[in-house]
Amino acid sequence: MSPAGRASRSLVWAGAVVFAVAVGLVLLMVVRPSAASPAGPGAVPAEGSADVGFARDMSVHHQQAVEMAFLVRDRTDDEDVRRLAYDIINTQANQRGMMLGWLESWGRPKSSDRPPMEWMGHPVTPSDGSLMPGMATDTQLDRLRAADGRDAEVLFLRLMTVHHRAGADMARAAADEAGTEEIRSLAAGAARAQESETALMADLLEARGARP
Asked: I want to staple 62 with a disulfide (CB 3.0 to 4.6 A). Which of 96, 171, 174, 184 is the partner?
């Protein structure tokens, strides 16, 4: 079996594990409050906390990943790339829904006029539609929309590699700094999943004679 084939099988299992963990977290929230909540009963993370900042920013980051995955899914017949796109769509849309749900339960707005990633100590200024590190620009998304076949595959894999690396960095920061078990667990799982998918994408690019 080719490296891409073996890696894609691993991705299916990884995606299943991440999905199961995500469902478990939702059930945990329904059954009881997190034992790692910032304070006593009814307490919620502060507006400037890593919990709120990560949930808000990663929801935006994930939304673009889902958008790019839908774009490549409709522009290639390659089974491995379509399987990767399907996993990203399902896993990241699910995680995004959880994070937006937590913001709602905490009574925190889902958007803010504050700079993205301020909670990490290094706020960023959006450029050409790229709101945070790793996010594709409007120009890059237009190129992906115009591409098809191998060109779409390679461009998607390159853009998503950069996207995942930055997303994993953000997730690791949240896993270290967040005050709620919900965010720490989701962030740690997201970082592992995105690192695994980044390795897969390197194999897929190599199979196409392209560099990351």
From this structure: 96
Q: How far apart are CA 61 and CA 67, in angstroms?
A: 10
The answer to whether residues 54 and 183 touch, using CB atoms and an 8 Å cutoff, is: yes
Q: pTM for this one?
A: 0.80
Task: Report the distance separating Cα 57 and Cα 63, nearest Å.
Answer: 10
From residue 189, alpha-carbon distances to 25, 49, 103, 205 in Å are: 11, 20, 19, 24
CA distance 70 to 182: 28
Q: How far apart are CA 156 and CA 182, in angstroms?
A: 30
Q: 93 in the Ramachandran plot: left (φ > 0), alpha (ψ -120 to 50) or beta?
A: alpha
Of 69, 73, 75, give the one whose Cα is nearest residue 89: 69
pLDDT, tens digit, 9 for 90 and up, residues 1-21: 444 444 444 444 444 444 444
